[in-house]
Amino acid sequence: MQAQLRQLPSVDKLLQNDQLAPLTEIHGRVLVVDAIRTVLDLARQRIMAGQSMQPAAALVEAILARLSVTVRPSLQPVINATGVIIHTNLGRALLSQRAQQAMLQVASTYSNLEYDLEAGARGSRYTHAADLLCRLTGAEAAVVVNNNAGAVILALSALAKDKEVIISRSQLVEIGGGFRIPEIMAQSGAHLVEVGTTNRTYRQDFEQVIDLQRTGLLLSVHYSNYQIIGFTTQPTLAELAELAQSYHLPFMEDLGSGTLLDTVPFGLAHEPTIQESLAAGVDLVTASGDKLLGGPQAGLILGRAALIEQIKKHPLIRALRVDKITLAALQATLLAYLEGKATIEIPVWRMIAADLATLTRRAQNWRRALRSLSQFANLPLQVVDSVSTVGGGSLPGQTLPTKALTVTVPSVDALAAQLRQADPPVIARIDNGQLLLDPRTVLPEQDKALVAALEYALTTAK
Length: 462
Ligand SMILES: *Cc1c(COP(=O)(O)O)cnc(C)c1O
Fold this sequence. Notes:
alpha/beta; 3 domains; 16 strands
């Protein structure tokens, strides 16, 4: 054992190895030495556990592997073949070309982020996307923060701290990722007053608990990720808006997804738009930037100018401050809507609008490309009817017809795991024991990589 330990190469010796020496130039000496030390440590432990010494080549391989893991960004691109368009775990909305360019530009130069070019004096970052948002939605004013959860906390803190916020019992929801309305309310210092029942709430349920001393706000939260069906009643937005107004109380709606486009022409149910809520008399609407809007992560607050002013003065806004790169992407995304090009430019809408013939052709092309490889000539590959979903807390239960490629193998879990090991990783969907790959969420330029990943996974999966 002692003899074997002595035979282990030294750090200095390994640093001179033909394969490792050039890497100190590329990644710096510190990282290479670190990888060498770790691998030598493991080798020593192995010898002391009675195993025989690895050949030098194996040590070098192990060092190279360690180093490549260290220098690879942990945040890496993946191919989304799940057919879930706004997939929160996979980064939600992809940005348009125009938004990507805008981000790159503002990232690489100084900008007038908080500088008024006309006055030559300090300006406000909150002016940048506000005009576009107002023009698109009819809002009097708007402000953008880091995300919608932040927008809700901020608005409640600014408008209803130590006051009562009245909400229907059916809307005390958890959105996912720990966003629970009662907890958010508690964080902001507002007191929750729930009215009605799980399935039925009426206007008068709200009115009965309004107290001019204590009530701060009426709140409505959109049913983002669930449905209540059957024997149900909810007051309309217009009814609640009218009620709030008659008591001079603000009425706020957390819309969640907050689309600007109507989803109905795409064969989907109606997802309420920001414009509709404002037109119905909602005083303040909050929405996400990276759900159906198809932009960057952001929280949009739109509505009455006086309320927006109050929100902008609250100290929390500094903690939820939106980044310049986000603002650049958001402006570019909003401009596409103003120009009527959203369904052409914005990936979320392009995916929603993708036609079945094109999806079918792509799934068939994947199949053909795999079949053309002799080892897969007899593999059971099928293009089948399936469904895609919009995801991201919008349109629960709604689906879009699609065509998916299925691969029949003894273990779909092993194949799915191997697909995740591909470079780039491919995330598939497993449905009824079948592995499905949906072209709707795979970018056309990723088609080749998807076929290569399948080839890799099918040859390595056990
Ligand atoms: C998604 C969602 C949120 C959270 O928005 P983020 O932008 O993810 O912070 C809050 N409320 C509703 C109703 C939602 O759908």
